[in-house]
């Protein structure tokens, strides 16, 4: 199935998984190229298809270095695409390329764009789940984030992002620093009652 001239038809099927399963090697090459397109729609569609394909197939993983190079892009959207696609493919990373990539990912925690920071936090949660040997490094980087540098109206959302990752990590990585961070977060005044309940449910694993 060639993607040339058919991107709209593929997404119009309304079944992303089915479309992703039908991709050929040539399609994947084309989609990875589309990630650099100036056309927002084409770029986003390419991302969705690659993301969906990565969930069940390792054939997007060979583009790891391409995704890694995006972490250094001057374009925040490209940086986000890079870290998100690395996170989706870390499950196929049997050679642990992530070990030499993680520091670049962690730098995005202080990205100039808040949306990229939040997408990075979410990506780190996926990476930690697949690579538990990185739990300590990821946790420490999250502890170091300065929420006072974040716009006040966004602090709750950002803190919840962080807590979701830490609550997942604490299921397998027991560290007093994580317990302390969660306790302090709940008492910080940043979270409202509903958000605190979310965190309590995460702690309980419900």
Please explain how this structure is put together.
This protein is mainly α. The chain folds into 2 domains: 1-56, no CATH class; 57-204, Leucine-rich Repeat Variant (Alpha Horseshoe), CATH 1.25.10.10. It contains 12 helices and no strands. It has helices at 7-12, 16-21, 25-34, 40-54, 64-70, 76-89, 102-107, 114-130, 135-143, 155-169, 176-186, 193-204. The chain is globular, with a radius of gyration of 18 Å. The N and C termini lie far apart (42 Å). Mean pLDDT is 92; it is low at 1-9.
Describe the structure concisely.
62% of the residues lie in helices and 0% in strands. With 206 residues, the chain is mostly helical.
CATH architecture of the largest domain: Alpha Horseshoe
Determine the structural class based on helices, strands and strand pairing: mainly alpha
Number of strand segments: 0
Coarse morphology:
globular
Distance between the first and last residues' Cα: 42 Å
Helix content: 55-70%
Task: Count every helix, treating DSSP H or I runs of 4 or more residues as helices.
Answer: 12
CATH topology of the largest domain: Leucine-rich Repeat Variant
Order of H and E elements: HHHHHHHHHHHH
- Biggest sheet record: none
Low-pLDDT sequence parts:
1-9
Taken as a percent bin, the fraction of beta residues is under 5%
Query: CATH superfamily assignment of the largest domain?
Result: Leucine-rich Repeat Variant
| Averaged pLDDT | 92
CATH class of the largest domain reads Mainly Alpha
Number of domains: 2
Q: What is the CA-atom radius of gyration, in angstroms?
A: 18 Å
